[in-house]
Each structure stands twice: as C-alpha cells, then as structure tokens.
Design goal:
The chain is 19% helix and 19% strand. The protein is built from seven helices and 13 strands. The longest helix is centred in the first third of the chain and has 17 residues, at 27-43. It has 394 residues and is an alpha/beta fold. β1, α5 and β2 (111-115) form a beta-alpha-beta unit. The relative contact order is 0.15. The strands form three sheets. Strands 1, 2, 3, 4, 5 and 6 form a six-stranded mixed sheet that branches. The chain has two domains: 3-293, Collagenase (Catalytic Domain), CATH 3.40.390; 318-393, Immunoglobulin-like (Sandwich), CATH 2.60.40. Bound molecules: zinc ion (ZN).
Length: 394
Amino acid sequence: MPALVQAQLRCAGVEYEQSIKQTQPQLTQRLLEVEQLIRQGMESGQWQRTQEGTLVIPVVFHNLYHLPSEKISEQQVQAQLKTLNDCFRMRNADTVNTRSVFKPYAADCEIEFRLAISDPRRRSTSGIVRYYTPISSWKMGDDMKSTSKMGADGWDSKSYLNIWVCRMEKFAGFTSVIGSDPKLDGIVLDLGAIGAGQKTLVHEVGHWLGLKHLWGDEYCGDDGVSDTPKQASYTPGCPSTPRITCGNNPTGDMYNNYMDFTNDACMTLFTEGQKRRMRTLLANGGLRGSLSNSPGLKLPLIAEMPLAEQDPTWLEPKLFPNPATSYVQIDLSYDRRWVGQSYRIIDLQGRVRMQGAITSVIHQFELTGLDKGYYLLEARRTDGVVYKAKFLKQ
Ligand SMILES: [Zn+2]
C-alpha cells in the first residue's frame, strides 16, 4: 500500500472536525476556548492536584454489525485493551524500538482503560454491546452514534469512553472534538482496526484526552505540548534516519510518537508533556474530570444482563404465508427504516385495494375484505427503496 494512502487512512480527525464546523459555525470559537482552558489547567498544575497514581477509565464498545462475521469477540476486545493499556503504561515490549534520542521524553501516563461492568442505569454489562444494523458500511460522520440513524446511542459521555466499532468506508478511526455535542462524544473505529497490537485506538484515545497531532494540523504548527519537537507534517511509514524539519535539530521529528501517522510498529511513546495534558483533562474540575465519578466500574445494582438483541432471520423482506387465507405478514426486521413507510395492495386490474403505513417490523395485513385471487404488495421508502411481492389469497 502506498504510504500516502495509508497515512490518509490512519486518522480522519481533521476531516471530521472540518465537517462538523461547517454545520456548527460557533464551534470554532468554542474550540479556542477549550484550548485556552486546557492550557490554563496545565499551567496551574491542575493535573498534579488530581488523585495520585493510576486513573482508570470505564469503556463501552458499541459493535454495529451488518454481517454475523462483523461481531467482535470479547477476546478481540480484551487483546485490544491490553495493547491500549500497555502503551499508556509504557509496558509494551516495542518501547525498546524508541529512538534513543526520544527515550528521555517517554512517559508512563498512569492511565488505564477497563470494560464497564455497570451500564448508566447500574445494570450489569460486559462492556461490549452488539447491534445489528441494516447499514453495511458507514461514511465518516456521526450517524453511527444514533439509534434513530440505524447506529447506537452512546452512553453518558461524562461517565464512559464510548467506542463505536463498525465497517468504515475509508478510515481506520476518528474521534469527536472535545467541546462539541456530548451525545456524539467518543471514538469510531473500523472493524479492521481492532485487535492485539493495533494502535489506531491508542492514537484516537490520545485525541479523546485532548492531544493533537504533533504538527498541530498545520505546517510546523503547535500541538500545545512543550516537549514534542515542532514538525512540518505527518510521517508516513517508519523512517530509519532522523527527519529534520521546522529547525528541530538535533532530535528531528518525533516519529515514534503515538500522535504521528507512522506504522503501528513504529509508534512507541507518549511524552511527559502529553501525559500532563491528558491528565489535566482528567483532573477534578477538568474537561473529563467527571469520569472519576462514573458508575461504570462500580458493582451493578441489577445483576441480570439485558438480553442481547435478536439477529434478523433474513437480510431481506419476507412475506408469509403465501398462499394466504385471512392475513399475510411481512417480516422487515432486517431494516427498521421500513416502519412508518407506506404500502399499497393492488389487484390484477391495477386497483388499489388497501393502503396505509407499516407500523412495525413484522406487519400483519388483514385480508378478510379481499376477494380470492392474486395481489401485489408494494411498499415504498422515502429514500427510494421499493419492495414488491405477489401473493395469492385463497
Ligand atoms: Zn489523529
């Protein structure tokens, strides 16, 4: 794969931010204020006043699957969490690959991530919730974060790190922007970017905790961290020699940093400055300080786990019985976008004999008013999808 394509796939955070700014013009100002708050917190030593030692963040994975093979296993999630925690705790074996010139800056961030054991209503949970969706692949945006758009609503973002895992069209991952809509707060990961040793999530969690790309998303830009050298832009692949840009002699670009775009194997450190920035957000009164009061890692009050959602039996509409006598049913549970849409039942002469709205994913049509013979059921969605099926009334 050419390096540039891979770099584009790595993280879509910048494209995402641009897209939401187009619909929310006030966001630009809000983000400047957020940056100001973070910098004030860092300068005032806010992060040091927070509780000492390791901070633990409850995580929930919302797995949107269209095909059964897109269900992620608990093993896959646990392996990903181990990599995430190893990287944040500087325990990953590949820290030995960190270029020696960067090693003095490397930090154990003392932040860990654990699957939630209680949901927002203190019911027991495995921290992994799987949902069937009629959407087979997702565009960058926020639709996957809303049940009404065939995705899954997030859990209270004051208390949980929400991670949506679904089939993305182009990107490995992207993260919401701190200071934007809390209902859309969290990380979206492509199904291919989760598992043992994968570091897309490490990078995205860095963003979720307030880190920017090393180049500050502009030429020799500022990432708000003092111990990461300025660098011109992202680094593709994994360089074998120093890359000097923006006058960053002698260290050069810190391409081993998780907030660059290098290969997973090349990414091996967060710095002390990045640790300070992330922990400022997690401090009491910080932008993510409420996580320390989360119910997510407290024992559940209701021990019974909610039942898993049933998979649809078919991935298309099914009409039955056919031939029919007093009624015919249509099973549309593969796609609940059908509910509320219109239908007509037409006889062989082309006359509309019944019409109305589909009221549930398994809708029953009473046929007692119809003569014996063949009919056409036609259902139409406002998005242009049409379903037609012939049936016989006996
Ligand atoms: Zn990024």
